[in-house]
Amino acid sequence: MADPELQLVARRIRSFPDFPVPGVLFRDISPLLKDPAAFRACISLLARHLRQTHGGDIDYIVGLDSRGFLFGPSLAQELGLGCVLIRKRGKLPGPTVSASYTLEYGKAELEIQRDAVEPGQKVVVVDDLLATGGTMRAACELLGRLQAKVLECVSLVELTQLRGRETLAPAPFFSLLQFE
User: How many Å separate Cα 164 from the centre of its chain?
Assistant: First the structure.
């Protein structure tokens, strides 16, 4: 990890063993959010990746409820784009499309406003962390129902041992930091 910006970002992720339950090592982004230079570096690195990979071919950044909302709008602004929100069920007004997905402890539902994107528009989905991939997969499904093209999914942190990126195929996935 030679990039000084990436090193700064990595130093601002802390770990809490046995949270929220025994056996889980929780990766906490709170120190990153408290440090303006580290947050700016995170957004800059993600934007650089997206510019190099997609050029100016992205129409919208899509932020996932709830921590994707912390990164999505800032990333969209950095790229000169708008940000579309995918929320938990019951949080969006107007006509919506929904998708359910499985969590370790049950089921959940995500929604997007039916007019959030037009058919053929190209989007990038962003969240803070990729674990099992269920939430991001459901977001991709919703966007597919609206006939948007998911160019890529991105996150700050990836928990590689949970193999969430495999559930996102065929959508490409990129993360700044990978942890077991």
Answer: 12
> pLDDT for 57-107, tens place per residue?
999 999 999 999 999 999 999 999 999 999 999 999 999 999 999 876 678
Catalytic residues: 67, 104
**Which of 179, 62, 85 shows the shortest CA–CA distance to 130?**
179
Does pTM surpass 0.85? yes
pLDDT digit string, tens, across residues 14-67: 999 999 999 989 999 999 999 999 999 999 999 999 999 999 999 999 999 999
SS3 sequence of the chain: CCCHHHHHHHHCCEEEECCCCCCCEEEECHHHHHCHHHHHHHHHHHHHHHHHHHCCCCCEEEEECCCHHHHHHHHHHHHCCEEEEEEECCCCCCCEEEEEEEECCEEEEEEEECCCCCCCCEEEEEEEEECCCHHHHHHHHHHHHCCCEEEEEEEEEEEHHHCHHHHHCCCCEEEEEEEC
- The CA-to-CA distance between both ends of the chain, in Å, stands at 16
